Amino acid sequence: MHKCPSGAAVLIPAMQAHLTNQHCWNSLPSPSVREAASMYSTAVAIFLVILVAALQSSEPPESPFPYHIPLDPDGILELSWNISYVQETIHFLLQVQGLRAGVLFGMSDRGELENADLIMLWTDGNRSYFADAWSDQKGQIHLDAQQDYQLLQVQRTSDGLSLLFKRPFVTCDPKDYLIEDDTVHLVYGILEEPFQSLEAINTSGLHTGLQRVQLLKSEVPTPDMPADVQTMEIRAPDVLIPDHETTYWCYVTELPQDFSRHHIIMYEAVVTEGNEALVHHMEVFQCAAEFKSFPHFNGPCDSKMKPDRLNYCRHVLAAWALGAKAFYYPEEAGVAFGGLGSSRYLRLEVHYHNPRNIRGRHDSSGIRLYYTATLRQFNAGIMELGLVYTPVMAIPPQETAFVLTGYCTDKCTMLALPPSGIRIFASQLHTHLTGRKVVTVLARGGQERKVVNRDNHYSPHFQEIRMLKKVVSVFPGDVLITSCTYNTEDRKLATVGGFGILEEMCVNYVHYYPQTELELCKSAVNDGYLQKYFHQVNSFNNEEVCTCPQASVPEQFTSVPWNSYNRDMLKALYRFAPISMHCNKTSAVRFQGEWNLQPLPEITSTLKDPTPNCPTGQAVSHTNPTTVVNWGRG
Amino acid sequence: MHKCPSGAAVLIPAMQAHLTNQHCWNSLPSPSVREAASMYSTAVAIFLVILVAALQSSEPPESPFPYHIPLDPDGILELSWNISYVQETIHFLLQVQGLRAGVLFGMSDRGELENADLIMLWTDGNRSYFADAWSDQKGQIHLDAQQDYQLLQVQRTSDGLSLLFKRPFVTCDPKDYLIEDDTVHLVYGILEEPFQSLEAINTSGLHTGLQRVQLLKSEVPTPDMPADVQTMEIRAPDVLIPDHETTYWCYVTELPQDFSRHHIIMYEAVVTEGNEALVHHMEVFQCAAEFKSFPHFNGPCDSKMKPDRLNYCRHVLAAWALGAKAFYYPEEAGVAFGGLGSSRYLRLEVHYHNPRNIRGRHDSSGIRLYYTATLRQFNAGIMELGLVYTPVMAIPPQETAFVLTGYCTDKCTMLALPPSGIRIFASQLHTHLTGRKVVTVLARGGQERKVVNRDNHYSPHFQEIRMLKKVVSVFPGDVLITSCTYNTEDRKLATVGGFGILEEMCVNYVHYYPQTELELCKSAVNDGYLQKYFHQVNSFNNEEVCTCPQASVPEQFTSVPWNSYNRDMLKALYRFAPISMHCNKTSAVRFQGEWNLQPLPEITSTLKDPTPNCPTGQAVSHTNPTTVVNWGRG
After folding, report:
1. Which of A269, A284, A267 shows the shortest CA–CA distance to A231?
2. How do residues B395-406 score in pLDDT, each as one tens digit?
């Protein structure tokens, strides 16, 4: 099965018990505190030549790693990993092409190289070291007091080196990142020259970067594909990837004439070989049924040539982002497409991320749909939770963490959901550029019960559909509360809600079955109360917020003097004022009822953040009481 | 030195290394998990007789415990302790008179028996056990997963039992109380009968109580007394302690005619023997110099017979509370009293706490002043920081943790402090009944620099002068920020600032030297801005807060409809609006300058709560990097 090439693999002896098939090593240097400088020879270039020459080719071990992601746009670093939910541990395999003097890899809050949780592989020109480390506010590297990344194997490969190491999700080392279900900002760096000590390294001097990924993926078992499954690829034909950092490519295609109603039951990305690090995310949208036809556009989405009608191709059929695997619908449900009452037109959107401005690269990436004519028991649907796209919900400028909240009220779920409820199995969070966190919580009887989906490290640049680890049932009378946290430090004026890229959204697209008529369950503050707020601002500040009918809400927000009092009052208003509900069948058709001036849902108990359990191996625990003395008997 | 009576002391062997002079034991039962029920004999009464009979008298060990406090008003439980700041550990000696079936002792947030951190000594009628435990929200006892209280010795005494055990300040067990510098609410309970298991015990069925104390006292070395030191006792003559729970006794006395200027350099409590558990706190006040004489009153402070003029006896000379030891002034400073320009009249106030309504107890407790005619280099002074006593600072009803903040601004310290600054060496925090936390922070250059004094477990029933562990120097231009946190859950109307017991205060009396003219450095929100707030309340709610000149501020606060918006707006107002400063020589005389409509001090960086270090014995730590492989050489 697994060969042990001579002189190739090194295994640290203390870690031996954790490995099964890879008991290969030849030298066992005893661990040493060689932080102090050893005499550093000048011949760095020679050292590197020797290093590379000393490594012979060998076969990589059979891969037990289901997940892969390129870290850098040049494909020098590739990360593979697997997850043990039982041991709450991740094994990482980091493959490095053409290793120079070392690498760093790790995680940080939002991808910065300061205050990062790192592993370091470095050489002082003489010996080489591996350590669990951290970078401080200035980017300087320090050794962690507690070593939680365990190196399991170092192996040379045909074109570089591979490192195998593991880490618990939770380490309880205050210098370590807490690995949770949400987006993780991975950071990496390449060391071009030896360093005399770990403390001599500063991340600012290195070639570094970041990559976003969900590390702790849902491992719900995938249903078998039926015998009659068919596939269809929605791919842009031979796109010449533009040589600038960000391109959204739009391509319109259509289903065959007379294509009858089918169920999509799975889809996956098809990425042109060699472009893995350039294709950032892709989505397939279905166009609106109200238009008979759509122009066959193929070009950048921001092109002046793009027909306006393409704005009506917004209904998500499939979405993929870097690092995501195939998306399987639950075995009892599928997404209906084709047939009467639905548009034959589809729009593919591909986000190319080309920071190195690589030229001349051709691409035909896209999404492969797996579908069946044998309809499943339930249609799967998508429901939009969060905030209505309206300027009444606004974020003052210069805020680091301003929260806006949208509600799906009990009154709406009571009307629109079947008595047996719906089951949410996946979720896609969405904001524009200032979004930093998104969470949807389910409340019942005034009490928060569970988190539907949460991303405390949300990035608007990384929006993927995520399978939930546990399906969430929602019944009539339940409330769904979606909160988004925004950072407007770089804005000079208020950011209002709306469709524009410089406006904001707060949306959770939840995927569920059985499909209902409810497409939209969102809220916004009542406009009359917002006008009272503007009046109050005027009364306190003697400033001129125009409260005449001619002034638009964005204009009114623009003229608010943003002192701390007006900021705090706006927060208080959003926590207090009645809301207007959109409890809609489609974006234009409401369920019957009074939806204006609705009371905010009353929540009497909120969910607490779970206290992470520190790994049991690390904490001393006595569970027996101590016997004192036999009082009762002699 | 220390005798080992046969059959008396029991030492758990694992703890032996921690003891020095007390290696005495006769039986060493092996630790056992006798949680499961053993057959419980019915003869509880007989068991108790046997228990008491089995214990013979022995001498207590020589006391290495500088601190003592009775826990219960009947004097059944007495706690002694010492502190090792090097090991961050407290040794406790708990002495129990006439032990029945066990005791519990511990700490909780505010003295409640639920969610408490406990030690339990109990018997199942057969064997007896000691454990580190905790009580849940319902008062049920559970064993801690981590045992942090270590039992060192159990010894019978002539009239009961003594337990010696220790605990680190910080355990990092989430079920344990974090012992900090501030007030600690000790809880105790007496077990009257055996329990089959720890889990069978609920605190609600026990005779329990609480006692407040500062456990981590300042251990600043005490200066030697000069040869010419004299003493004077300020004691009420033969008070018959009233048989109700709370009495404040007032007694006026006077210094001898022609008593010249002296320095008080130390004082201590003199408590009548037998009344140690009844005398809760005592203060000596100097009366105002502006009145030539004061009536010689001797009676309850709330008596209708008490002359009004005693309200002018408010300048604190000495203050003692239960558990406090002698108070020493720094060797270079003393409090001036006597001589020209100061009143000869003193008022002693004694708070008797008599919850058992004991009758017929006589008392002559008081305070003994140590003073010298050889004046020290500096006069010590007291400065009042915090909020002006004015209704403009108010707390809405039904708040669990509402914060009010008072400022001593840079403008005032610039005017009033000498270039070499002042040194604060002690502090007494003060609020009325709803106060729960008090803190004063020093800021310099817009940045919070250090905590002057903080009590996160402050109780208005326990106000003692505390020596600071480190003297804090304050220079011209520094800002002192005093914040109080209030709980008004039991109030139906707003609580406004003022002198009344149902009104509130937020004060830190800081003791410092050299004395300056600055007696008061406090603030309150500007009244004009508060009126703007009332206008806003009206504009939003269409409610009637009278904003006419006839309405007093308390009346205005009473008519505010307290919804979340008005609460949040008031908080925002106090965070935003300009302040009026009292930068005063005495309560009536201001320093020259404009003190109205002052900007709030701008604070750009705040102090972070220190992360407590978990005890090193408990946490696994690796500090060495792991050597990977000798890349460079062969």
Report:
1. A267
2. 999 999 999 999
